Amino acid sequence: MGGPVTGLAIIGSTGSIGRQTLDVVRSLPDRFRVVGLAAGDNVSLLEEQAREFRPRLAGAGRDPEYAYSRMVELGLNCQWATPEEMASHPDVDLVVIATVGKAGLSPTLSALRSGKAVAIANKEVLVMAGHIVTAEAKGHGGEIRPIDSEHSAIWQCLWGEPLDAVERVILTASGGPFRDSPLEELASVTAEEALRHPNWQMGQKITVDSATLLNKGLECIEARWLFDIPLERIEVLLHRESIVHSLVEFRDGSVKAQLGVPDMRLPIQAALTYPERLPGTTAPRLDLRRIGSLNFGAIDMKRYPCLGLALEAGGRAGTYPAVLSAADEVAVQHFLAGHIGFLDIHRVSESALAAHRGAANPSLDEVLEADAWARAWAEDWVKAKT
Amino acid sequence: MGGPVTGLAIIGSTGSIGRQTLDVVRSLPDRFRVVGLAAGDNVSLLEEQAREFRPRLAGAGRDPEYAYSRMVELGLNCQWATPEEMASHPDVDLVVIATVGKAGLSPTLSALRSGKAVAIANKEVLVMAGHIVTAEAKGHGGEIRPIDSEHSAIWQCLWGEPLDAVERVILTASGGPFRDSPLEELASVTAEEALRHPNWQMGQKITVDSATLLNKGLECIEARWLFDIPLERIEVLLHRESIVHSLVEFRDGSVKAQLGVPDMRLPIQAALTYPERLPGTTAPRLDLRRIGSLNFGAIDMKRYPCLGLALEAGGRAGTYPAVLSAADEVAVQHFLAGHIGFLDIHRVSESALAAHRGAANPSLDEVLEADAWARAWAEDWVKAKT
User: What is the value of pTM for the model shown?
Assistant: First the structure.
């Protein structure tokens, strides 16, 4: 294969995106060196990964002393490091932010302040603090590459395009498991039903967010920051098959789309190997002759009130997107635990947004305060209801 | 709008592509100066165009003395010039080859030898002499931009991509007016029926070639030269709606597609304004919500024997593609005149290819000889049959 070797730090290596990132590394062993692996609480998987990839740096969020002692016991000669230390380490060229929720925020900023390239799968990083993250990237010559399939599609469609050429960005949405359910049944759907995504295998929280389309709303806010385009020029298009991952309409009327089988290893690899494309050995090839038909339609905003809520929060900007994201996270946890109904997810978030008094252009501390406030508000809402 | 002004020579200004090129110029009047207009035999339209665009250079293929005297009579202060003179004139930056058949060959070579950018709509130029044309472009720093919607799509999908990234090029084909006709009825279809293309308004010859899919085969040969990719990695995909104009599969499994309403002004504008994209005022916007469904399928090679023939001629290379193109042109003329049946178009071309003794890496003269030989062969075939 040849070519330069990229030093990787993977923050969130034991989660779904982290594991698939290591799959990509396995298929291109000459091109990557795993310098750092940071896990959350899955220490046994971290051990396994460290045995295979022999990183110089390792870390775990929960019970780090125990985790470290296990590594020593196993004879793995790792230096123990926080995600922030890994993200700024001189041997690291590219930091993969594969965490969920606000955990990705601080290592992302650490990486960007060190001028590293950052591949972001964690949408809350940009939803909560897009204005801070993009300013840090600009200020230190850092680079943000998306991993989310939709944003990877838009990013790939923009390669080689003039900066002022974009008319609209069009995010596709499968519509989730309830796209065809009668509206009156939505109040009584179960967590199990909400977790049956028609096309993608993902974590629980994002799967429920894909059923409400809150996830798509957060993706619109993420796209706004990644591609420096106003929300008014970002559209959501219903596309049942999740084959067209997203599209860009240019101002001359030409439209470009990126397509592929629904397999996260494809956008992960694109982010890891950019600006090259290397042979992928893992995911099956797209065969449109076999797929036959790709279907598109308008989004029914009545079916997906969380999408409207997210676009509203994105429009108000400041701390509102952080409040929405945090309130939704609490609400989804309680929905998955059976404490509240599916439609309550929207009610919790709506109530938090309505009660919030936000700051414009907030500092990181103000964003984190708003996040904490919204979590408390949402917990109170659920307590009052149950 | 601002930006530099591009000096244009339009070779074939009164044909379908030439007229639509002038439409694009009309919508972006500050960005283009029409330096030269070369017509075939439609002198009255050339007069009209010269009155509107005031080119420094004009020319007509048929009856040039009469045409010139008309221009003088009308007080149009044009210098009379051949297509070759226009294509190499110092005031010209970009030459649009909007002719049909081998007429585009000599002005294309003239432009490339002068280091100009050439926007090619005339597929015979590359089908007949791709090896010569691409060598001239390389040798003199000239540039070839495609206008055909399929090739424009591939070209746009390749912007910003690494050169070694392409796995396959996938050309879409609508299947023409007979895609659903029972095979046994094809022998008796009329010229009128063959001219009813489901999606595109085009000239007669290319419309019949779209019914046999010979046109798609020539496009594969054209793509082979434009994108320097072996024929084996070029595929044809049935796509009824002509919305996805073509696709590129990269070696990492990612696929990019270019989409748009079927309107030739879009790819013409892309070729004229490259590397910029400017607001297009003329063509309607693509709305996938309204279109609803895009359909794809395999090509039935039994229905379209001319496609197999073209791929075979492309594989044999040398003078074979020129022979196929010339024999088909004669056959289509006789089909349109009612002298032979629809299925005879294939028989004429097949017989010419079988009889031809081709040269490898032929000179331009050898290509033109092969063209003349094939025309004579095809005329004889028709004469013997009728």
Answer: 0.95
